Amino acid sequence: MAFPxxxxxxxxxxxxxxxxxxxxxxxxxxxxxxxxxxAGEDVKNPVASMPGVFQLSINHAVAEAERAHELGIPGVLLxxxxxxxxxxxxxxxxxxxxxxxxxxxxxxxxxxxxxxxDVCLCEYTSHGHCGVVHRETGEVLNDVSLExxxxxxxxxxxxxxxxxxxxxMMDGRVxxxxxxxxxxxxxxxxxxxxxxxxxxxxxxxxxxxADSAPQFGDRRSYQMDPANAREAxxxxxxxxxxxxxxxxxxxxxxxxxVLRRVREATDLPLAAYNVSGEYAMVKAAAxxxxxxxxxxxxxxxxxxxxxxxxxxxxxxxxxxxxWLSG
Length: 326
Ligand code: PBG
What we know:
Blueprint: H1 2-8, H2 10-15, E1 31-38, E2 44-46, E3 54-56, H3 58-70, E4 75-81, H4 98-109, E5 114-119, E6 132-133, E7 140-141, H5 142-159, E8 163-166, H6 173-183, E9 192-197, H7 204-209, H8 230-242, E10 246-250, H9 256-265, E11 270-274, H10 276-287, H11 293-307, E12 311-314, H12 317-324
Parallel strand pairs: 1-3, 1-4, 1-12, 4-5, 5-8, 9-10, 10-11, 11-12
Antiparallel strand pairs: 2-3, 6-7
The chain binds ligand PBG.
């Protein structure tokens, strides 16, 4: 019975070879680091449910962007917390809105760092939905929202965004945004589309951080049912047809199978969003001494990459980059 034994010992024989037989390599270059930028001066509000994450005024966001760049992280993803909200989410497409101002400031301070902007209305609408809501029925109006989302994306590009990332999940938004960008002279601005975005409990802490919890109802009419995987391929296919340059699966860890299937279905760059709740779980357990934070984070991020992600959006980015650089 020599043959089975040879096979059994393979892991032991090659363990000492380390990097030579390692299949997946995580690097700071894989990461995009999300930042919450808030109106106001010299603000650094800790987000209670996300230890280590803050709502930052522009000066602090610039400092954090500089730190990310020094750690070898190629890009940041900006979310905005406007001073005021209204029914039409007008802060989202205000040329002097919070994300527009932060984009200009970061591009001026660290031009090499990629600025990706979240394109959505939920942080800017008084009702907290990702689109415009019908006054009487409370229904989220898809087509009316498209125009505003397209304007938002163009205003981000105008401010210097390198990539726009629509996260709203309205139907037809990628085509609408592509058309508006092309119209406004931003033919070369890529779209990273949240192609498969599930209606997830793991966005809970984000809604504190971005102050974007829906005031009534939920997002189930426009976000996907966690039970569906084939639907992710349908959604991704539509976004690719509409002109997405990068597609995304979100959240990451409960959806690694979806990530793998999307990886196999498209040759476009694929991003995974390791969301707020995934971050909060690890941080909470680590603070209790129940997990080794460094090992748990690097294992989770390696798993996301192994499943097929080219790009990992993660709040752990600076810590992970430091650990990876040893
Ligand atoms: C919507 C948006 C959400 C997240 C990113 N963009 C929240 C939602 O759909 O409710 C969640 C990200 C996270 O949980 O880290 N603009």
